[in-house]
Amino acid sequence: MKIKRVISIFLVLVMLFSVTASAGNSGYVADYDTETPVIIVHGMSQNNTYLVDENGEWVPDETGYVTGWPLEIDVMPLIKRALPNMLLSILTRKNVGLTEAMYEGTYNALSLIEKDNDGKYVNNIEVPCYEMPMSELPEDVKEEYYTFLPIQELSEIVGEDDVYYFGYDSLGDVMYETEKLHHYIHDVVLPKSPNGQVKLCHISLGGTIAINYLETYPEDYELIKKMVFVIPAIDGSDIIGDLYTGNLSVFYDDNTLYEDLLVTLLGETPLAYLLNMVLRILPSDVLKSALGGLANGLVDIAALRSTMIWALCPTAYYEEAKGIWLEGNDDLAGILADVEYFMNARANFEENLFALRETGCEIFNLACYDMNLFPLCKEYRTKNADRVIHADSPAMGATFANLGETLGEDYKAVGTYCSNPDHNHLSPDGVVDATTGLLPCTTWYFKAQAHEQLPENDVSLGLAIRVMADNNMKDVYSNPAYPQFNEGRLTFNARDNIEVWKEADKSGISAEKIAAADAAVAKVEALLNETIVDQAAWNAADAELEKALVDAEVIEDESPTKIENMLTAILRTINRGINKIYA
């Protein structure tokens, strides 16, 4: 049994942007640069890696090809290895080899991505990186890349000849990928650049490559016209830090283990609460020990020998994580040396970034906040985040209040990187002080916007394309249509519904229902033309449109039935009651 899934801590950069709409709203006039090539350094899982056979061919499977990333997970080894020990542990109420079985099963299930102590794949894995612009890619490859990152709008503005997609290994070697980017810039892109410069757009995990690149190749600074960061993992992610240090919330917090985790993964469904109750079959200490075996197996097979993943370990966790996994292990001396180099590069990031700016390079950043971290993180209930990354990491050190709190009525901006009295870098909600971030005048913030759902926020993506392509976009004050502090919204569903309605056969639909649907479409389209988001108004309009199309029987109602809602409520109550008994 195989489950192909994308495991990602990453962002997908999607460009859904109407130039004339936002320009008209603000009176702003764009000046698009069509001379400087743009290199997209993608986020995690936005480039396949393939298993290669002895003939150098990609190995096929039932869905296409066997991939090292996104991971091809064979769960049968885990089930076969752990099931006998699980049954014995249930019968005896003791840990009968279950931890070891979970470790070995996890390791075996992920054996495709196993690496040796030099960080090289044991299996023959190929990572495509096509040394040509989008215009020259084979059509199937171009379609794949536009699926990973639908940047067609960017290509239309600057031309496909000037858009490059730098493919790298999400589980690879940060040193190697940095060297590869250096080669890519010099030998692939610069020879075709009319002005002898490039623009770099680093997305999520791609931000770690930027950190290493600036440290390793300062002689390249004058070649970079713009560097754009989109929710970059500058200080990694607490998810990875807690994984490396064994501080995952499930080991300490029964409410997470028996309530929040599965509900986050599966949603508010009867299945989530049923599974929560099933977990109680095992004693808490046995279950946590088994999960520890699984986590350690995951680190050993996927993270221990991958310096790209080590680059996601936050600075605050690193010394402890290094002591657990790397120090004193002579076999991993090479891995440790590379990780140490990267951590030093991160320590020098501020100095390097400002040195880059001194050469005339324009630097921009997009960040999100006001979301929980994924429940595996120990501080997921309190730390401000975008669900995947703690908020101060992509914001490059900006200050955030804890979730549900503000910085206080008497709080004054610290002014570390901007003390201009004419500037106000405090968010209207009192949650963010942007002056402690490295780029207070060129970082935009989106409230209540999840990291992995940024592609659905047309406003943030419109902004991303502007800062990449528009010479007149200089800072957060350049265009009133894009204020420094904005809100998130998800637009894919609404846009799809509008298209469905426009193409629908309305001959059998009553005039009343047609009028209701037309009104709902008009309301959504009006909000889509606004770049300053009212999230509550948007969510209401989106829901109204969906209801109108359901009433018109144009789309199916996928919301839970009354019976499902009732069953969920009953099981939730029982689950919480059981947890109180065991507390």
What's the arrangement of strands in the largest beta sheet?
A: 9-2-10-11-12-15-16
Q: So what's the oligomer here?
A: single chain
Number of strands: 16
Silhouette? globular
Radius of gyration: 25 Å
- Proportion of β residues? 5-15%
The parts where pLDDT drops under 50 for at least 5 residues are 1-25
Class of secondary structure makeup:
alpha/beta
Mean pLDDT: 91
Enumerate how many helices there are, as a single number: 20
Description of the structure:
The protein is α/β, with parallel strands linked by helices and 583 residues long. The protein contains 20 helices and 16 strands. The chain has helices at 19-26, 76-92, 98-109, 139-148, 152-158, 174-189, 206-216, 238-245, 254-266, 270-279, 284-303, 307-310, 315-325, 333-347, 349-358, 458-469, 492-503, 511-528, 535-551, 562-582; strands at 2-4, 38-41, 49-51, 60-61, 64-65, 67-69, 72-74, 125-126, 163-166, 198-203, 224-230, 362-369, 399-400, 432-433, 443-447, 485-487. A seven-stranded parallel sheet has the order 9-2-10-11-12-15-16, sandwiched between helices. The longest helix is centred in the last third of the chain and has 21 residues, at 562-582. It is globular, with a radius of gyration of 25 Å. The model is unreliable at 1-25 (pLDDT under 50).
